[in-house]
Amino acid sequence: ETGVTQTPRHLVMGMTNKKSLKCEQHLGHNAMYWYKQSAKKPLELMFVYSLEERVENNSVPSRFSPECPNSSHLFLHLHTLQPEDSALYLCASSQEVTGGYEQYFGPGTRLTVT
Amino acid sequence: GEDVEQSLFLSVREGDSSVINCTYTDSSSTYLYWYKQEPGAGLQLLTYIFSNMDMKQDQRLTVLLNKKDKHLSLRIADTQTGDSAIYFCAEMRDKIIFGKGTRLHILP
């Protein structure tokens, strides 16, 4: 257990569905991240939140919409996804965004878009 | 190149040492990391090294850093079945950049 939980662990959705991924960290960290992990590709950083403000958006399509209501919770809202969006979505948190830091990862949500 | 490079697979006999190699991209990277990902789990930070260090040892793990060649390695002594996982090298530039991961397979 890393102190970062994600729900659901598995999600199958159609291209017209709307769903949300949830991440919660119990570590008192100030920064939270969403990553996409696809087969045979490096981890892709999607979004970064620091003190509940979005500080980075790595050219992610608008069908992915993050929300950070407080420093402990992070959501990723999904709508009209494409099959190529099927991947493992990892949430992470850290004490600070810049400088030396350690990111603690959740177990991920395995998303399949049909 | 722009990518953090790692070989995709490594097979090692149980009890032998495993050496996982990585080439990173930016000589000014301040921190270099090794993460471990077991099946069905997220990434777990194994160890990290500051760029002003050449070596760091932590129990069975030894990290070697060659800044001139931008080469990072992770040695796991006495490899055990529980070490079977994907190992990710990462560097800290303005953000953390990961390699594609090396899948370590343990042979009996």
Radius of gyration of chain B using CA atoms only: 13 Å
Inertia-based shape of chain A = globular
> What's the number of extended β-strand segments of chain B?
11
Give the oligomer, counting copies of the same chain as homo and different chains as hetero.
heterodimer
Helix segment tally of chain B: 0
Distance between the termini of chain A: 31 Å
How much of the polypeptide of chain B forms β-strand, as a percent range? Answer: over 45%
Q: What is the chain-wise order of helices and strands of chain A?
A: EEEEEEEEEEE
The largest contact between protein chains, plus residue counts on each side, is: A-B, 22 and 22 residues
Q: Low-confidence spans of chain A: pLDDT under 50, at least 5 residues?
A: none
The total beta strand count of chain A reads 11
Q: Residue ranges of chain B: pLDDT <50 for 5 or more in a row?
A: none
SSE run of chain B: EEEEEEEEEEE
Task: Please tell me about this protein's structure.
The complex is a heterodimer of chains A (114) and B (108). Chain A is an all-beta fold. In chain A, 0% of the residues lie in helices and 56% in strands. Chain A contains no helices and eleven strands. In chain A, the strands form two sheets. In chain A, strands 2, 4, 5, 6, 9, 10 and 11 form a seven-stranded mixed sheet that branches. Chain A has a four-stranded antiparallel sheet with strand order 1-3-8-7, with no helix packed on it. In chain A, strand 7 (64-70) and strand 8 form a beta hairpin. Chain A is globular and about 35 Å long. In chain B, strands 2, 4, 5, 9, 10 and 11 form a six-stranded mixed sheet that branches. Chain B has a five-stranded antiparallel sheet with strand order 1-3-8-7-6, with no helix packed on it. The radius of gyration of chain B is 13 Å and the shape is globular. Chain B starts with a strand and ends with a strand. The model of chain B has no long low-confidence stretch (mean pLDDT 91). The A-B interface holds A 2, 4, 6, 40-43, 45, 48, 56, 90-92, 99-100, 102-108 and B 3-4, 8, 30-31, 35, 40-45, 48, 50, 88, 92, 95-100.
